[in-house]
Specification:
The chain is built from six helices and seven strands; from the N terminus they run E-E-H-H-E-H-E-E-H-E-H-E-H. The chain is α/β, with parallel strands linked by helices. The protein has one domain: Zn-dependent exopeptidases (Aminopeptidase, 3-Layer(aba) Sandwich). Strands 1-3-2-4-7-5-6 form a seven-stranded mixed sheet, with helices on both faces. Helix 4 links the parallel strand 5 and strand 6. The termini are far apart.
C-alpha cells in the first residue's frame, strides 16, 4: 500500500488531499473500537469530487486514514485551535468526542513518533517536492488543500457549517487576491452559504506552507458534506446530482487561481 499518491500536472495549482484515505494496517484496525472502525471522520470521496475540475493540477493525496495519524496536524502536536475542541495528531476520539480505540489500545508516545515517521513525514515530503517543482516552473505555487466534514458536529462547532469554509490563517497564508478569487464564486453561488476564516482557518498544511513572501500561497477549503453526498451517514454515498453544482463552483475557483498564477501577477 502506498502511503500517498501523486499525480503530476503543469499548473501552478496543487491539490492537497490529506484526509481522503481509508487504509489502516490490519493491526491498527483491530485495535479500534466499534466507533473507530466506522471511520466516520473521513473526507469521503474527496478525490472523486475534485476529479477533472482542473486537469493540469498536481494532486498529492494520502491513502492512510487520519486515525493512524492526521497529516493536517502539527507534527510536534501543538494545537491549531487552543481552547477549542479538536482532534490530535494521533486522534483518541472521533469528531463527536467519543473514544475510537478499544480500552488500553491507545497509541503510546513512541508509537505516535513511529507513525509520524511512517505516514506523516512521507506525505509532506511528497507535498514539499511538488511545491518546489511547481514553483521552479512558474515562479509561484498555490497549494489548495481539499477537505470535507459533516455539516453538524456539536463537539467541534455550533449550528450548521456553511457549505464553503475558506481558511487562509486570517489572510497570512496567501495573497489577498487569492482569498478573493476563492471566495467570490462561493459567495455568488445560489443556495450555498460561505464563511472565510470562521471555525476553520486552515490546518497545519495551510499555515506551514503558506508563505506569500516566498511565492508559495496556501488556502484550505472545508466543504460541508451535504454538498455532495446522498446523506452524511454510512455508507457515505457520493451523489453526482448533489455534487454537480458544488463542482461547478469549485471548478471556477481552481480556474481562477490557475489563471491568476499564470498571469504573472503574483511574481
Amino acid at each position: 500500500m502506498n502511503v500517498f499518491d501523486v499525480t503530476r500536472g503543469d499548473s501552478p495549482v496543487i491539490l492537497g488531499q490529506p484526509h481522503g484515505g481509508t487504509w489502516l494496517p490490519d493491526a491498527l484496525m483491530a485495535r479500534l473500537n466499534d466507533t473507530g472502525r466506522k471511520l466516520a471522520d473521513t473526507d469521503w470521496h474527496i478525490t472523486q469530487l475534485y476529479e477533472g475540475l482542473l486537469d493540469s493540477a498536481t494532486v498529492v493525496r494520502s491513502n492512510v486514514h487520519r486515525y493512524a495519524i492526521d497529516a493536517n496536524r502539527d507534527p510536534v502536536g501543538v494545537s491549531l485551535y487552543p481552547g477549542q475542541n479538536t482532534t490530535t495528531l494521533c486522534p483518541l476520539t472521533d469528531f463527536d468526542g467519543a473514544p475510537i480505540w478499544a480500552e488500553g489500545q491507545e497509541p503510546s508516545e513512541d508509537e505516535i513518533l513511529a507513525r509520524r515517521d511512517a505516514y506523516h513525514a512521507p506525505y509532506h515530503a511528497a507535498l514539499t517536492e511538488q511545491i518546489e517543482r511547481v514553483k521552479a516552473r512558474h515562479g509561484v505555487a498555490i497549494l489548495y488543500d481539499c477537505h470535507s466534514i459533516r455539516s453538524n458536529i456539536p463537539f467541534l462547532f455550533d449550528g450548521t457549517l456553511p457549505v464553503f469554509s475558506i481558511g487562509t490563517n486570517d489572510g497570512q497564508a496567501c495573497a489577498a487576491r487569492i482569498q478573493c478569487l476563492t471566495a467570490d464564486p462561493c459567495l455568488k453561488a445560489e443556495r450555498m452559504d460561505t464563511v472565510v476564516n470562521g471555525r476553520f482557518k486552515g490546518g497545519w498544511t495551510t499555515r506551514h506552507y503558506g508563505r506569500p513572501e516566498t511565492g508559495i500561497h496556501a488556502v484550505q477549503m472545508e466543504l460541508a458534506q451535504r454538498a455532495y453526498l446522498a446523506a452524511e451517514v454510512a455508507p457515505w454515498t457520493y451523489d453526482p446530482a448533489t455534487a454537480a453544482p458544488t463542482r461547478t463552483v469549485l471548478a471556477k475557483i481552481l480556474k481562477n487561481l490557475d489563471n491568476l498564477a499564470r498571469s504573472g501577477a503574483l511574481t
